[in-house]
Structures are given as structure tokens and as C-alpha cells.
Write a structure and sequence with these properties.
Strand order of the largest sheet of chain B: 4-3-5-2-6-7-8
Order of helices and strands of chain B: EHEHEHEHEEHHEHEH
Structural class of chain B: alpha/beta
Helix content of chain B: 25-40%
Strand order of the largest sheet of chain A: 4-3-5-2-6-7-8
Shape of chain B: globular
Number of strands of chain B: 8
CATH architecture of chain B: 3-Layer(aba) Sandwich
Largest sheet of chain A: 7 strands, parallel
Distance between the termini of chain B: 58 Å
Strand content of chain B: 15-25%
Radius of gyration of chain B: 18 Å
CATH architecture of chain A: 3-Layer(aba) Sandwich
CATH superfamily of chain B: P-loop containing nucleotide triphosphate hydrolases
Number of domains of chain B: 1
Order of helices and strands of chain A: EHEHEHEHEEHHEHEH
Oligomer: heterodimer
Number of domains of chain A: 1
Strand content of chain A: 15-25%
Shape of chain A: globular
Largest interface: A-B, 64 and 63 residues
CATH class of chain A: Alpha Beta
CATH topology of chain B: Rossmann fold
CATH superfamily of chain A: P-loop containing nucleotide triphosphate hydrolases
Chain lengths: 222, 232
């Protein structure tokens, strides 16, 4: 076995984002809105999961959804069509994440009055979105079974900043070599307070638990 | 039906990376090293694909891999264990590599090769840069590579070319991986190909399963041919 050489290649791109995040939190507090930021790699199933979750929650709380994409409007339309809730498509012109200032600008055009739960579907990316506070109360991330159980090792910040980690597409567990215990252990090592929940939007596994989790948080916020 | 509202947000970052990348590409051409920049989402199977290709590269070309990651050395270790010269590049949280970072990696790779025993000290015909798992940022930065290669795995869905268009515009080669999982997922090959070819009519598309080995030999032959063309 050879020895691995590690070369550090640094560049500082961190931007100050805290002021805008505080403004977003104030807007949310004024309206009694609970805000979750949903992040994952491309194709982990954010839109599918949110569509299923919103359908379960929409008669219990008032929901609005924001979808960020580089240029297509596929997701916001999918969510709006499937659930009937108010959905806003944000185009960020090729940027790899959404920060608090962008959230603030989007919210300025979005009446939060009467909205109990605001959901942001972030850009599919495990790197950049983790670095930017959007002003959300909770960060929720998805790790899908086909991506593999080694992702916490490779994208540690995302797992560190997420309050809830959803292991999605659990219906494909038999097909892929995914060690759930190993994944949980790696996540908890980075973030001992993470709530980890295996779910499948397809079979419904874990969806009731997720629904209760979010509902409880929304009610606590009010 | 409620219509989705669209708000355009934009931010720009200026770089002099394109010029730097061209200088690097010329240097590599001179040195007869074919650099391939491999990009994809996290978990599409970049490392597994490289391992599968090794079976067909062995004895035919001299090749190596620069593994870029934010943290961890698992990928470079995997390649080394398979007997492929490899170095791990850490970006310190950065979401992509640019030409200058790539150049730092190549230097490290060259000294890694130079440290080997005399019999193995034979240089490289083909060098892979396994970029950070990310469909957005790496697409924006020319690394100086001869070829850009991207992987789309079946579980990610057929809509990725529509959602991450730049990646599919800058790539020369698209490898659709995990085709052994086609039965488990709804993946419309025709739709995917249409979305890709609309943006990039010259895209070369391969279908493989790095796990079962299906389609890998054809991909390997193509890459060997491209390496020889570049180094001629």
C-alpha cells in the first residue's frame, strides 16, 4: 500500500453574510414564519420529497415554497402543480448557492403574511450552500442511498451545518451497497446533534415521522 | 394550475483563469500529457469509473490520477491501492479547481512519479483530474485540460442536463453510469439525450456500469485513442 500525499490548495472566498441573515430572521419573526433550507447533491430527490411532504402538511399549516435553480423552472412548477401551494422560482444566473441577501431580496417580493412554513429548495450542491447562512431556522439535507455512505467524509461541512439529515431513496437499499450504520456513525461524528431519518418518498417510509418533526417545529415557532 | 414566479438574481466573479488555462494546456501538449478533467455530482461514481478503466489502461498507457476533495484522502488511497499513481488535492473547502490549482496538482503528481523506483519512473501519457463532486462551479473554470468529461448516474435522474446546463455545454464527453440500475429508476434516455444534444451537438455519449463493467471497454478504447491523438 502506497503512502498518500496531501497537498493543500487554499483560496479564501468566504463572504460576510450575517447582517442579511439577521434581516431575514426579523422578517420571519414579524410574520411568525418558520423557515427551512433544504440542501443536497443534484438528484438526491429534493423536489420529490418536498412534494410528498407538502402534500401531507398543506391542510395543517399554510406553506410557501421557494425553488432555486440555475435557469430552468421545472421544480417550482412541479411543486406548484402537485401540491397547489404558492411556489416561487428563483433563478440565480449560474451561481452555486443562495445566501441570505438573495433570500432577503426574494422575500421582499413574496408576502409572508399568514405563511406558517417557508421552504427553500436550494441549488443541488454539497459544497457552497453549506457555507452560506440563508437565515433559515433549520437546515435540512438529503443524502440519497445511490450516492454512497462515504459522503460525510468528503463533504463534511454540509453534514456539520445540517440539523436534520434525511437518508432518501431507502427503497433502493437492496440494490446499492449502502451501510446505514456506517453513514449514521460518520454523520454523528461530525454533528452529534443531527437528527437522522431514513425516508423514501416512493414507499412512504419515514414520511410520517418527518411530517411530525416539521409540524412540531412549526407549532413551536408560533 | 398556479404559475411559478421567476425572479432573476445574479452575481459575477471576474477571473483571468481562461488565459492561465490556455498556457497550461500548451505546456501539457509540449510535455505530451493528456489531461482529462472529470466532473460530476457527488456519488455519481467518478472513482469507481476510474478503477474500472484501469483494467483496460493497464499495460497500454501510462496514467495517473489527481484526486481533488475538500477533505479526506479516501479516493487517492483507493487509486494507489489499485496500483495507479495518484495524489490527493485538498481544496480547503473550495468548490472547484481552476487552472492554477490544477498546475499545483500536476507539480505534485510529477514529483510523486519522480520519487518512484527507476523502473516505474516513466512519466505519464494520461492524467485524470477528479474534480470536486459538484455540477455547478467546476463547469465555470477551465483547468487547462485537453478534454472535459462528465458523469451522469442513472439515480440522479434524466433532468440534470436541463438543470445544470453549463456542465453539459463545456463537457466533450458524457458518461452515463450505473446503467445496471435502469430498471430501478425512471430514467428517460431519449429525453436526456435530447436535452444534452440541444446544448452540445458534439457531445460524445457512453453508457456504462462501472460496477458490472458493461460499456467500460469501449470507453477505455476511446480515451486511449484520444490520448494518442493529443500526444502525437
Amino acid at each position: 500500500m502506497g503512502e498518500v500525499r496531501v497537498i493543500e490548495v487554499h483560496e479564501d472566498v468566504f463572504a460576510q453574510n450575517n447582517h442579511a441573515a439577521a434581516d431575514v430572521r426579523q422578517m420571519l419573526a414579524d410574520n411568525g414564519t418558520f423557515f427551512i433550507n433544504v440542501m443536497s447533491a443534484p438528484g438526491s430527490g429534493k423536489t420529490t420529497l418536498l412534494t410528498a411532504l407538502i402534500s401531507r402538511l398543506k391542510d395543517k399549516v399554510s406553506i410557501a415554497e421557494m425553488d432555486v435553480d440555475i435557469e430552468s423552472s421545472l421544480d417550482a412548477q412541479r411543486v406548484a402543480d402537485a401540491t397547489g401551494v404558492r411556489s416561487l422560482q428563483i433563478h440565480n444566473g449560474g451561481l452555486c448557492h443562495i445566501d441570505a441577501d438573495m433570500t432577503k431580496r426574494a422575500l421582499a417580493e413574496f408576502d409572508l403574511n399568514g405563511v406558517d412554513l417557508l421552504i427553500l429548495e436550494n441549488i443541488g450542491n454539497l459544497v457552497c450552500p453549506a457555507e452560506f447562512d440563508t437565515g433559515a431556522h433549520k437546515n435540512v439535507m438529503l443524502l440519497s442511498v445511490p450516492e454512497g455512505d462515504d459522503k460525510p467524509l468528503k463533504y463534511p461541512l454540509m453534514f456539520t451545518v445540517s440539523d436534520i439529515v434525511l437518508i432518501t431513496k431507502t427503497d433502493t437499499m437492496g440494490f446499492f451497497n449502502f451501510d446505514l450504520d456506517k453513514a449514521k456513525e460518520r454523520i454523528l461524528k461530525l454533528n452529534p446533534n443531527a437528527v437522522i431519518l431514513p425516508v423514501s418518498a416512493k414507499t412512504g417510509e419515514g414520511m410520517e415521522e418527518l411530517e411530525s418533526l416539521i409540524l412540531e417545529a412549526v407549532q413551536k415557532n408560533q | 394550475m398556479e404559475l411559478a414566479k421567476v425572479i432573476e438574481l445574479k452575481e459575477s466573479i471576474l477571473e483571468n483563469n481562461d488565459q492561465d488555462a490556455q498556457v497550461l494546456r500548451d505546456e501539457l501538449k509540449e510535455k505530451k500529457i493528456c489531461l482529462i478533467n472529470l466532473m460530476s455530482s457527488p456519488g455519481s461514481g467518478k472513482t469507481t469509473t476510474l478503477l474500472a478503466l484501469n483494467e483496460y489502461f493497464k499495460g497500454k498507457i501510462r496514467w495517473g490520477v489527481m484526486e481533488a476533495d475538500i477533505d479526506s484522502s479516501v479516493d487517492a488511497q483507493t487509486m494507489l491501492d489499485a496500483g495507479v499513481p495518484s495524489v490527493q488535492l485538498h481544496t480547503g473547502g473550495m468548490c472547484h479547481l481552476d487552472a492554477d490549482m490544477t498546475r499545483q496538482g500536476i507539480r505534485a503528481m510529477e514529483s510523486h512519479i519522480a520519487e518512484k523506483s527507476d523502473s516505474e519512473k516513466s512519466g505519464l501519457d494520461l492524467l485524470f483530474l477528479e474534480n470536486i463532486g459538484n455540477l455547478v462551479c467546476p463547469a465555470e473554470f477551465d483547468t487547462g485540460a485537453a478534454l472535459n468529461m462528465t458523469i451522469l448516474s442513472v439515480p440522479e435522474g434524466d433532468d440534470k442536463p436541463a438543470k445544470y446546463p453549463l456542465m453539459y455545454e463545456v463537457a466533450d464527453l458524457l458518461v452515463v453510469n450505473k446503467i445496471d440500475a435502469l430498471a430501478v429508476f425512471d430514467f428517460d434516455k431519449e429525453r436526456m439525450e435530447r436535452d444534452v444534444l440541444t446544448r452540445n451537438p458534439d457531445m460524445k455519449i457512453f453508457y456504462i456500469s462501472a460496477l458490472t463493467g458493461e460499456g467500460v471497454e469501449e470507453l477505455a478504447s476511446y480515451l486511449i485513442e484520444k490520448t494518442k491523438e493529443w500526444n502525437a
